[in-house]
Amino acid sequence: MFDMREVPINDIRVGERARKEVGDTETLQFSIRRNGLLNPITLDENYNLAAGERRLEACKALQWKHIPARIVPGLQSTDISLIEWIENVERVDFTWIEDLELKHKMHSMWKEQQPTWGYRDTAGKLGVSLGGLSSDLALAEALQYFPELKEHKTKNKAREAYKRLNANAEAIMAVQNLSQEEQDQLNNMLQNSTDKGEAKKVVASESKAEAPVGTPIQEDETPSYEAAKVKSDKDLPEFTYDVCGYEAFLNKLPQNLISFAELDPPYAIDYAYHDDAPEDADWTIEQLEDAMDWILGWLFNNMLDNSWVLCWSGYEHTHWINELAKSKGFGIQPPGIWYKPNGGRTPVPSVKMKSNYEHFLLFRKGKAMFNTPSFGSVISCENATSGRVHKWEKPIELYNKFFTALSRPSGYFLSPFAGSGNSLIAATFNGMTPLGCDTQNKHFYSFYNNLKKYYMEASNGNGDDNSETVQA
């Protein structure tokens, strides 16, 4: 049996305790000041402390003269030690889910009692920060609609998963919020129809015979939007691969649609530093500067908030492109590197190092976050060694690494320099709808064959994330 009484604090003897440090008691002081001492301390009949040292120290700091105590007569020193052990070892803290749900319950009850009650009032009542409480209550409400968030081990991991859910929801809503005219325009751009049969291609706007997929064609002097109209198997995903310049293509797109973009312009410029001979498609430095200035401005003004841009660059251009992206409003960071374990070549290997890497840049609009816990600045991936559409082609396996960290499933992916189209294929396998263009219409057939072959392998259960790039 025990009795309750108010005991003079100065009469309490703490004695030898297993806990050497009581730690910070400021939060406990705030709670006691606001709500009173909800759990009295425990003493023997001689006022030796059995349980409640932190509560006692908090009340001393509050300059209390007396403290409510539970008096248990007949306690021995071994009993006091056992009580201290039981109180600390057997105590189980709330899980993060229980903590959030209880905070949400208390806030709701207080708000029901006082309609003007707000987050600041609850934060004051609980003695926690307003920002932390707002975040906790938002996550507590999310648990009601997305119970799968409870599967995460920590609150921080659940919060990051919820942010990704919000980002994906924004990507879906972006399409739903388009005007009917914009939706019709977008649907017209998606080349995949429900008709069966071999893919056909209408070359340019002039009347030409239809050629089966894979038939070489001459590039049109003035490629048009109509150059890439396609009828494909109904099981293939929707996509757009337009044969035109980047500016004409981007001007067709609705605003606030794109949630991930890749820029891979012709940057093999100034061959005083290179061993290869230039190609007809290579640009001058002036062309690259003008293009990047226009495209980065368009992207920042038209992409969804909290989205990523992946930009490939020659090493000599990384600094000024980064600074240009920053001037447009993007967040920037140091360049990353794609390391090719099997790549690189040099005409004089005995005296010249082979180049087996490429630089990439990441531009961040708003508060975009990685889908993964982190993302390394060096990415190792084998280069495709044969069957490439062109010598600068990047493998689908490499793109999959970027999509894992940066993409928004159900959103739209943009590549205004689509080339081989491997980034468009990777987009479809990562739940995004790809929109791309290129002035080289010879690349379209290879892209379409690769897309079709990948989907046939996947549907037959033969897909292999570690396979080489599918050969056209």
What labels describe this entry?
four-stranded mixed β-sheet, Conserved hypothetical protein from pyrococcus furiosus pfu- 392566-001, ParB domain, alpha/beta, 3 domains, 37% helix, 472 residues, 14 strands, Rossmann fold
Structural Rg: 32 Å
CATH topology of the largest domain, by name, is Rossmann fold
From the helix content, strand content and strand pairing, which structural class follows? alpha/beta
CATH superfamily of the largest domain: Vaccinia Virus protein VP39
The amount of beta strand, in percent, is: 5-15%
Number of helices: 14
Q: Roughly what is the average pLDDT, rounded to an integer?
A: 78
**Distance linking N and C termini:** 87 Å
Q: Can you tell me the CATH architecture of the largest domain?
A: 3-Layer(aba) Sandwich
Largest sheet: 8 strands, mixed
Uncertain runs with pLDDT below 50, 5 residues or more? 192-233, 271-278, 463-472
Instruction: Please identify the top-level CATH class of the largest domain.
Output: Alpha Beta
Count up the domains: 3
The SSE string, one letter per element, is EHEEHEHHHHHHEEEHEHEHEEEHEHEH
Q: What portion of residues is helical?
A: 25-40%
- CA-based shape: elongated
- Tally of DSSP β-strands: 14
How would you write the strand order of the largest sheet?
A: 7-14-13-8-9-11-10-12
